[in-house]
């Protein structure tokens, strides 16, 4: 017996009558998020470009967050993660989070070591 797809998005706050309406609703949502990214990329407001947060421009943080929102929503809705058990959802989400965090740690640690060797060691900057 085939399961019925849930016809709501945003955790049940917006409900649709058919799958076709839901697909159009999701398309509109993803299009709006992408349009905001494109508009910000074209305009590049100086208030977002010249202000920094945790060593990165605020505009880049906005791009990063909106991209994660789109990726999360695509996985949640189109890959039907919302219908899976919470342990599978956690496995899918936390594994890349852990691996990316580990990779960033290694890259920063090694970059600091290389910088210290090249600035204080016998090897000079010859790039």
Automatic annotation (TrEMBL):
Topological relation to the membrane, as annotated: Multi-pass membrane protein
Keywords: Cell membrane, Membrane, Transmembrane, Transmembrane helix
TM spans (from-to): 23-43, 58-79, 91-109
Subcellular location(s) of the protein: Cell membrane
Claim: Ligase is one of the keywords in the record: no
Protein name in the entry: Cytochrome C oxidase subunit IV family protein
